[in-house]
Amino acid sequence: MNNPPSMDWARRLILHPNQLDEVELSRALEQLAAGADFADMFFESTKSREWRLDNGKVSAGRFSIGQGLGSRAVRGDQVSFAHTGDFRPEAIRSAHRTVQALTRLGGGVAAAPSVSLVPQLTDHGLYPRKDPLASADLLPWVQLLEKVDMLARAAHPGVRQVNASLSSSHRVVLIANTDGQLVADVRPVTRLFIHIVLERAGTRAQGSAGVGGRYGLEGLEDEAVASTISQAVRVATVNLDARPAPGGVMPVVLGPGYAGVLFHEAVGHGLEGDHHRKGLSAFAGRMGERIAPETVTVLDDGSLPGRLGSLGVDDEGTPGQRNALIENGVLTGLMQDRLNARLMNMRPTGNARRQSYAHLPMPRMTNTFLLAGQEDPNDIVASVARGIYAPRMGGGQVDITSGRFNFTAVEAYLIEDGKITAPVNGVTLVGVGHEALRHIRAVGHDWALDEGIATCGKAGQTVSVSVGQPTLRIDEMVVSGSV
Amino acid sequence: MLSAYISDSEADLRAASQQAVELALRAGAKDASASAFSGGGLQIGLRDGRLETAMRSGHRSLNLTVFQEGRVGAASTTTLDPEAIQRLVQEAVSIMRWAQPDADNGLADAMDLAHDVPHPPQYEPVSDDAAAMAEEAQNMQRALHAVEKPAGTELRTSEVGLSCSETLSVMLTSSGFCRASLGSSQARWCSVTAMRDGAMARDYAQSMARRRSDLRGTDWLVDRAVQGAAGQLGARTVPSVTGLVLFSPRTAQALIEDVVGALMGAAQYRRASFLAGALGDLVAADHIDLIEDPFEPWGLASGAYDGEGVAGSRRPILDAGVVKGYFLNSLNARRLGMRTTGNASGPYNLTLSSRRPGGDGLAMRRHLGTGLLVTAITGGRTDPATGHWSRAVEGYWIEDGVQQFPVAGITLSGDMRTMLREIIHVGDDVERFGAFRTGSVLVDAMHIGGRA
Questions:
Q1: Are residues A314 and A364 located together in one domain of the fold?
Q2: What is the pTM of this model?
Q3: What is the rounded CA–CA span in Å between residue B10 and residue B181?
Q4: Domain containing A203 — which CATH number?
Q5: Which of A114, A277, A384, B241 is 20 to 30 A away from residue B249, measured at CA?
Q6: Biggest alpha carbon distance in chain A?
Q7: Which three-class secondary structure state does DSSP give residue A451?
Q8: Which residues are CB-neighbours of A209 under 8 A, at least 6 positions away?
Q9: What domains are defined for chain B?
Q10: Does B257 reach chain A within 8 Å, measured CB to CB?
Q11: How far is Cα A112 from Cα A109, in angstroms, rounded to an integer?
Q12: CA atoms of B396 and B370, how far apart (whole Å)
């Protein structure tokens, strides 16, 4: 197969309309790489559509076209970069002259690399190579949101507001580099977010939930939509009844799925190659050390079918793959992009990601999770005399230098004498990565990934990820509260 | 060409906007508005004295909104070629046709359009090229190496960065509004990792402004980042306690952000706000003022008009603790039976102040007496409907007004409605962060979650 389907998309949307081909791109790379030891071009053509349900009406929609080229030259650990929204050859030459000048600023002297691009086949099968926006029929979008409105209002008599957004995007990327690699990927995304406002006796509370994946509208199954609505309604109900949480150090049981953001924050960010190369991570120099109980294995896996963090190839053309970060409690792996891998004499791991053509790639997580253990989740809750059960999270942060992380529950309950009792106000949980790992007491068998709503921010760039875990007990965490 | 960083002329942007509006009207829209942007800039980053990144950015975009009897559709593109503009119009009109009507949708009312409200000054041409910026970065780096470090502390890595950019924007409506505006921005930042006895801590300082002369000096940036990072070394937790907490000016911004969120039109309309329907109510301590000013010269959030062509006004948002206004666009104003406040693009410059002066930073610590000074909010959230406030924080423990030791790994929680009423003082140690200006803020009835 000389023309793999992803490459067909790239030719049709990016190369052909601008009279670009392998020869033209090879010449452009040679110009870009002058004075550098590596250079790449990242073309992107993204179209997206979003519909909003507001006040019982599907009354707002937006369509967006985002296209551009980011061109990068790397010399040692120095990067020069320019981007343009214009794919015409003269615009590309002009952007590359700019990069050349910036490379000279860092001391690079012109050498003339020779580049010969060979199109590469990417038959990854992780997600469909289709355009979720191909149909001009917008009725299914409107109907799905109408159904959300109806089902949500029927779910609870106190529902006063239902807001929802339904979005799909079709992203075609084309990567060409001075190693001669020319590779394309077609990445669909569809997401549904639901936000509910509930009222009882004059008091209002809100709840939200979402679902998403690398598929088109048809990938949102009725069951997933119904379960998203009931989650949003449940969170709102819990917040109506919530009382102040106890504050201080106590055992915490985290539910399956999105609570795995714990490992994204407490482990993942600290194992990104760039932080290690710069000596900034609290985990730097600790490879091979036992840092958690044997029941703890944490993976980053960009090769799961249909997940938002999955990548046929990453944003530098390396295939998405499964990397062990912690294996049976031992720190084993880093996540790398080309630049950091090369400088650390390691191999790229398929973790190079960028928000868009206008941003530089960095080592980023894909789908990051703790593997299942043996224990019954009910027994895990029953093992706690007094603590917090937190099944749903709102997001988290970490300071990789100190290892201190925090995350916030949007649904939380007291555990008293081994039983889940009263709902409490959303709590913020604080810990230090290596300490929290040591305090993992029990790992459940009910493994799950989040529903497809997680995003990750790093250095001002946002990308979609997945997080996951089974039910988990941590013996000591600091909990925000007032009692 | 206007400048090296803006690749389109005002006439180009006007023509693209005009074309989108005309095509939309021809395709069946009754009204339309379009805005176009073109801009670019440079960013230079140095790590440990070596050039690490040099980036040239260039952006353009065209946004179109179309209306027809309460139906609305919108589209945007980052490429302005004729096929893209065609597709933009076609998609926006198609969405408009499928959308369910809401009578409150539509262009801003003609009487509200700011045809001749003068522009506050916002544009100073960026004069530096990459070489000049790299030279300035080296100077920052030298200042960083020369700064006096606390005894026994070393700087593990340090990063300095500079960026500058310019943007030209044009806005045009089928109701006859057509204006252009120019803006520039400058930023400098510095981030430091300090190390002592195997412990590491990191902090940063940054300064953003529309023109160079409003930037903080290098010495301030460097000193703040180094003291911040070194100061946090050896941080520990404190016992759980309820009482007074002093928010530094940087962290006090979080309080302004929550008030803004609660007073936004959409939150008010949905009544999903801890200040729902609070117009005219006393919601904060009766010495607290929050003033909005769209016209502050060189303000980071200044502007002659918003994304609908409507001007804002210099006005109190909180006046002696009483809510005097919401942040409204045309749609939410109509829904609430009010008039737009010109905030379709968000709030303008905001200043929090007190009629009960708290004095400088030292005086504020004396007011605190013994308790927590919060210098960083590292995570957490506010429930916008209930006002439940919960954060992970870092800072310093203060006793009798004197700093004792750094604190980290603790949580702080409260309730926004209570917190606003329990503001004891706002300090004179005023700093500007983005669009917000405030001194440090002393608040009672906060719950610290720490050691049992």
A1: yes
A2: 0.95
A3: 9
A4: 3.30.2290.10
A5: B241
A6: 75
A7: coil
A8: A193, A194, A228, A229, A231, A232, A235, A451, A453
A9: 10-231 (3.30.2290.10), 241-449 (no CATH)
A10: no
A11: 10
A12: 11
Contacts of B94 in chain A (CB under 8 A): 136, 138
Q: Does B156 touch chain A (CB under 8 A)?
A: yes
Copy the structure tokens of residue A78: 């120095």
pLDDT of residue A3: 38
**Last-in-domain residue among A211, A241, A271:** A241
Alpha-carbon dihedral sign for residues A18, A95, A337, A114:
positive
**Domains identified in chain A, total number:** 2
Q: Do A227 and A261 belong to one domain? A: no
Q: What is the pLDDT of residue A31?
A: 95
Claim to verify: residue A220 and residue A279 sit in the same structural domain: no
Rounded Cα distance between B151 and A98, Å, is: 44
Q: Select from A225, A241, A257 the last residue of a domain.
A: A241
Contact A65 B409 (CB under 8 A): no
Angle at CA B166, nearest 5°, toward B162 and B167? 140
**Regions of chain B where pLDDT drops below 70:** 1-2, 452
In chain B, residues 260-319 whose CB comes closer than 8 Å to chain A: 269-272, 276
Q: Which residues of chain A have pLDDT under 70?
A: 1-4, 110, 483
Q: How do strand A428-432 and strand A404-416 relate by DSSP bridges? A: antiparallel
Q: Are residues A147 and A280 in the same domain?
A: no
Q: Judge if A256 and A185 occupy the same domain.
A: no
Instruction: Look up the ipTM and state it.
Output: 0.94
**What's the pLDDT tens digit per position in B272-317?**
999 999 999 999 999 999 999 999 999 999 999 999 999 999 999 9
Per the document, the length of chain A is: 483
Judgement on whether residues A214 and A256 belong to the same structural domain of the protein? no
Looking at residue B148, its pLDDT comes to 82
Tokens linked to A119: 């199109």
* Cβ contact B276–A431 (<8 Å): no
Q: Compute the count of residue pairs across chains A and B with CB atoms less than 8 Å apart.
A: 261
A170 and A279 both lie in a single domain: no
The residue range of the domain holding A337 is: 248-479
- Cross-chain residue pair B380–A57, CB shorter than 8 Å: no
Question: B37, B78, B154: which to substitute to probe chain A, counting the most A Cβ within 10 Å?
Answer: B78
Note whether A226 and A252 are same-domain residues: no
Does B146 reach chain A within 8 Å, measured CB to CB? no
Give me the residues of A, 194-253, that contact B with CB < 8 A.
197, 199, 204-206, 239, 242, 245, 247-250
DSSP A316-383: TSPBP-EEEEEETTEE---B--HHHHHHTT----S-EE-SSTTS--EE--SEEEEPP-SB-HHHHHHT
> Can you give the pLDDT at residue B1?
54
The rounded distance, in Å, linking the Cα atoms of A120 and A21 is 14
- Tell me which residues of chain A, numbers 106 to 125, contact chain B at a CB-CB cutoff of 8 Å: 106-107
**Torsion region of B342: left, alpha or beta (phi above 0 gives left; psi -120 to 50 gives alpha):** left
